[in-house]
Amino acid sequence: MALRRKLIAGNWKLHKTVEESLELAGQLSAGLKRDDLDVLVCPTFPALFPVAQRLKGTAVKVGAQNLFWEDQGAFTGEVSGPMIKAAGAIYALVGHSERRLHFAESEKTAALRVAAAWRSGLTPILCVGELLQERETGRMEGVLESQLAGALAGVSTAQAGGLVIAYEPVWAIGTGKTASDAQANEAHAYIRGWLSYRFDKHVAESLKILYGGSVKPANAAGLLNQSEVDGVLVGGASLDASSFLGIIHAI
Known about the structure:
By secondary structure, this protein is of the alpha/beta class. The protein has one domain: TIM Barrel (Alpha-Beta Barrel), CATH 3.20.20. It contains twelve helices and eight strands. It has helices at 18-31, 45-55, 81-87, 97-103, 107-119, 132-136, 140-151, 157-160, 181-198, 201-206, 217-224, 241-248; strands spanning 7-11, 38-42, 60-64, 91-94, 123-128, 164-167, 208-212, 231-234. The protein has an eight-stranded parallel barrel with strand order 1-2-3-4-5-6-7-8, surrounded by seven helices. Helix 1 (18-31) runs parallel beside helix 12 (241-248) and helix 7 crosses helix 9.
């Protein structure tokens, strides 16, 4: 099995002013005491450039919470990959369940965003995950397959090696519920198996798969010690420096 470096990512969602974001970024960079894993924060768009400047030269990297699939044009309210890259980001979240729920994003638009991220020199973090009803009715694997196949349609094996997947069961996002360590590992194993079939074993073994959904310092170690879990995508717990650092230092 390939040795995959852990990635701990914080999605700040619609929280923190620019000033608050800068304060949190400073606390994280000052409190980070290890260099054997990767740490990433995804602030709001207004805070993206100043946070990237604050974290320049530190071990904490910066990503965007979304991106549009065109580089420029008459698309009011959108932000493009080249703009995000120029602001200092190196990652971009794609297809988060909240984008699917509130803004009607789909596998088709996820595929366009994945392509736009690569075109701009950004690493896409593709988010996938099932609803509670879908899990309870035995449709988890079918939902994951549909989301992966749709978002990665047309992706080459060479491109796939530069991708990160985030498995986020929708029923665990912001609910306080967390998939058990075994449930998370099982879902990650399915995703890795699908990637091996769709691309090849080398891609599947080298690609990072993160877990997201009510991750906290108290449950991080159990999740991160699972064989198929290569990191976490943290929501609410990433908004407090001590909490997020507790997750980072959990293993």
